[in-house]
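Check this:
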Amino acid sequence: MLTFTSGQIVQEFGYDDDVDHDLRDAIEDLLGEDLEDEDSQEIVDGVIMWWRDGDGDLTDAMVDTLTTLAPGAPVWVLTPKAGRDGHVAPGDIQESAGIAGLRVMSSMSLAPDWTGTRLASRTN
């Protein structure tokens, strides 16, 4: 799931009451570790970022995820599905990713209310 493997360190941004706890638990079970919070200074093997329309500047948030990200590691932007409160248009994700120096690799349904978009750095 999400290209993560056991033993990797994954940092989480944008946690709030509305996140999909089953998805979070499944990621932590796969990793065998708790997710690192957004204040962690650890170099990480990947990022999940819960993002909703109205959370602020998406481009700035994407740039923030790169601070402790290992080279070539994925960033997953998790957004509410179309028709759900807080939905973010795919074009907005594409535009912000490009400005942040990332590119959209794929998108998939990850939970009943959440879609995940995998981003990669342009140097990959």
Observations:
- Residues 81 and 87 are 6 Å apart (CA to CA).
- Helices lie at 21-31, 58-65, 90-99.
- The longest strand covers residues 102-111.
- The beta strands are 10-13, 46-50, 75-80, 102-111, 114-121.
